[in-house]
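Bit of a strange request maybe. I'm writing a small parser for structure token strings and I need a real example to test against, not something I typed by hand. Could someone generate the tokens for this chain?
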Amino acid sequence: MDNTTLIWIIVGVVVVAAIVVIALVVSARGRRKHREAAQHDKAEKLRDEAREKELAAREHEAQVAQSRADAASSAAAAEQAKARAAQASIDAEKHAATIDEHRADAADYRAEQAETLRKADEVDPYVTDEAATRRAPADGPTLTEQQPTATDDRTVAPDRATDGPVDGGRRVATDADADADADPDTRVRRDRADQI
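Reply from user aminoacidic:
Good idea to test on real output. This should exercise your parser:
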């Protein structure tokens, strides 16, 4: 083997080694890029998960804030209800305190009414003593009792002419009487006729 052949063999080996080295370098770069891309994709997935978790956390925080606001609103409504109940209780006590006063005033008015009717019976010559004694006592009946009217207890004297039905010495009121009482001119004419 001469030197030229040996040189060509060495050159061939070096070329093959260079090609192998270049192939290995290119392959390593490809694997590194692929690995970096995979790592980048994984990082993006992790970032997406982090964003979803952040949104979920914010949603839960909003729900907590809403629950606190609802609880505060309910507490305020309960306090307002308590305040209204307390005011209603105070108003009820005030009204209860005035019941006796109103009852006493009503009794006074009933007594005044009875006294006025008694005086009217004393002045009216057509009211008999029996009808006057049937009147309610001075303290007056309760509100639930039927109050007599002047027409109920007044009796007509036997010698007085009547223009309506008579029941047991008492003149019975008719629709004509109600119409006459409603018209002042008719009432005046009737009073003049009674005096004649």
